[in-house]
Amino acid sequence: MNIIYGHRHLNWFFKELFEMTDKGIKYKGKEYSWDNIQKIKRAPGSYSVNLCYPGAIIYLDDGRKIWINGRVFTRAGEKPKFKTWS
Predict the structure, then answer these.
(1) How far apart are CA 20 and CA 49, in angstroms?
(2) What is the pTM of this model?
(3) Does position 21 have pLDDT exceeding 80, yes or no?
(4) CA pair distance 34, 73, nearest whole angstrom
(5) How does DSSP assign the chain, residue by residue?
(6) Residue 58 in contact with residue 65, Cβ under 8 Å?
(7) Which residues contact 57 (CB under 8 A, 6 or more apart)?
(8) What distance, in Å, lies between the first and last C-alpha atoms of the chain?
């Protein structure tokens, strides 16, 4: 099971954020096991467009943080599950 998650911009351009595997996640070329994730925290949206679409922050044990924008977060090959302007 390898599932790629990322952000879809302008409902057209997809930018990979991380890949989820059976063992954990792959982020920026490095593999992390599920034990390497210290915590996941809900984060507020930006103070402009995304205020109504909060996201999350994944804290990894090496100090890295993965910022997830809830407005544009989706699986590769899928359309976002919210209404868009297009």
Answers:
(1) 28
(2) 0.74
(3) yes
(4) 20
(5) --EEEEEEETTTEEEEEEEE-SSEEEETTEEEEGGGEEEEEEE---SSGGGGS-EEEEEETTS-EEEE-TTTEEETT---SS----
(6) yes
(7) 40, 41, 43, 65, 66, 67, 68
(8) 31
